[in-house]
Design a protein that fits this description.
Blueprint (H helix, E strand, L loop, with lengths): L1 H18 L15 H4 L6 E3 L33 H4 L5 E3 L7 E4 L13 E4 L4 E4 L30 E4 L4 E4 L2 E2 L7 E2 L3 E4 L9 H6 L4 E3 L13 E5 L4 E5 L7 E9 L5 E7 L9 E5 L4 E6 L5 E6 L11 E2 L1 E4 L9 E5 L4 E5 L5 E6 L8 E6 L25 E4 L4 E6 L6 E5 L11 H5 L2
Parallel strand pairs: 20-24
Antiparallel strand pairs: 1-27, 2-3, 3-4, 4-5, 6-7, 7-10, 8-9, 10-11, 12-13, 13-14, 14-15, 16-17, 17-18, 18-19, 21-22, 22-23, 23-24, 25-26, 26-27
Length: 436
């Protein structure tokens, strides 16, 4: 196990940092693409999953649900709120052979279940890794249930993955069930030493993999916010959204010696309120934050000067034909295209790429990436207002290709989009996509 952890850390340093910066000669270090990835044409979508999240709903299991076949004690409005209630997800490169999309969601009165789900890119199937805490109890200290697992809040774009510890990271937990109040405690779920997800007993064993940070009062209070993993410094940057007093960095590695892990540092930067998205650009060493709920702005935070409050609101210059800029969207960095990638509902995928040498003053150009040959359009989320994909839109790099994943419904498929090489093959115009 020690060798496995070392090998994974070396791999992630090479692939996550060097490959992300576009350094030549590193493509061979990325894992090989599964066969199904090779079958997707560049610039097109495909439905790729062989089951759904609903197929592994714990409420359907009479061993877990004391009210079976009725609603489980944790059900709230239903399992669909795992995705629909303003919740994100993260891609974990260290899950299984080819990585996995990790989901844990709900929050407030929508859904109380805190089980963890994983879409395995190798098998193309959803697994339930843990069982939900059976009976919600409010209030709960630091957002942690009595069995040592986190209560779930609306995660928005505040979930991520830490490669060094192979952990799924939720930047906040829920304190109580009304008013949107959340606890400023980071919950980290290790994907190492997982019992096989083939029995309820094994899923209960997997609950031991949760770890928690200390309370950080400057961090997360109410709704919204974003997080982004910084591969250069091996830490996370985050903003808590509505009511948060500062942007923070979070290092998940330090062992505090009291059962808590990680350390925080605060910076005098505010980048907006709710329904934001952020991604790290390793070339310019910036985090770009979309502020599309109230504007069309994209703000960049200069991570070389985070203590300078003015550096948190550098408005990037946009050019080209921008798509419809919607709140609650997908926003990721593409190592192969060396650009940000934006996903809105439907089939629309767009690149936002720097032109010139000065990211502060030179324009960034919008370009549509979806091919005219595309025949699959991802289904919108059950609710179409503010409940969008958030961090459930993720880009995955393989040795010779790159895909984006998104899941929008618990009873629907996982979709994959093949990121096209440059130049874009037969691009569809943005206005055509907006009309779909």
């Amino acid at each position: 196990m020690r060798k496995r952890c070392f090998d994974r850390l070396v791999y992630m340093v090479l692939c996550g940092t060097l490959l992300a910066t576009g350094m030549p000669g590193m493509a061979s270090q990325a894992p090989p693409a599964p066969d199904w990835v090779k079958q997707i044409a560049p610039g097109t979508w495909a439905a790729v999953s062989l089951n759904t999240i609903a197929d592994v709903d714990p409420a359907r299991d009479p061993e877990l649900n004391p009210r079976h076949p009725g609603l489980a004690p944790w059900s709230g409005v239903g399992q669909y709120a795992v995705l629909d209630a303003w919740n994100g997800g993260a891609f974990a490169a260290g899950y299984g052979r080819s990585g996995g999309l990790i989901i844990c969601g709900g929050g407030h009165t929508d859904y109380y279940g805190n089980e963890v789900y994983a879409f395995d890119l190798d098998s193309r199937r959803w697994n339930r890794l843990t069982n939900p805490y059976p009976t919600p109890v409010f209030p709960v200290a630091d957002g942690i249930w009595p069995d040592g697992t986190p209560s779930v809040s609306h995660t928005f774009e505040q979930v991520d993955y830490h490669p060094g510890t192979n952990s799924f990271v939720m930047m906040k937990t829920q304190y109580h069930n009304t008013g949107g109040k959340s606890s400023p405690v980071v919950a980290m779920f290790s994907l190492d030493n997982l019992a096989p997800p083939d029995s309820n007993a094994n899923r209960d064993l997997n609950k031991r993999n949760w770890r928690f940070s200390p309370v950080h009062t400057d961090n997360y209070t109410n709704s919204g916010g974003w997080s982004a993993y910084d591969s250069k410094r091996d830490l996370f940057w985050a903003h808590g959204g509505d009511g948060s007093r500062a942007m923070v960095s979070f290092d998940p590695k330090p062992d505090r010696g009291n059962g808590r892990f990680g350390s925080f540092q605060s910076y005098p930067i505010r980048t907006g309120l709710v329904d934001l998205a952020a991604a790290y650009d390793p070339i310019n060493d910036i985090v770009a934050v979309t502020v599309f709920r109230n504007s069309s702005d994209i703000l960049a935070v200069d991570l070389a000067r985070p203590a300078d409050g003015r550096s948190g609101n550098v408005k990037l210059v946009q050019t080209g034909s921008p798509p419809t800029l919607e709140e609650s969207h997908g926003w990721e960095w593409s190592p192969s295209r060396r650009a940000f990638v934006y996903y809105r509902r439907g089939a629309g995928v767009y690149e936002f790429k720097q032109e010139g040498r000065n990211w502060r003053t030179d324009p960034w150009r919008w370009t549509g990436l979806t091919s005219q040959d595309n025949t699959v359009v991802p289904v919108d989320a059950r609710s179409t207002g503010t409940q969008g994909p958030f961090g459930r839109f993720r880009i995955v790099r393989f040795d010779d290709s790159e895909i984006a994943l998104v899941v929008t419904r618990v009873d629907g498929p996982v979709y994959a989009f093949k990121i096209p090489p440059s130049p874009v093959p037969r691009p569809r115009q943005p206005q055509d996509l907006a009309a779909r």
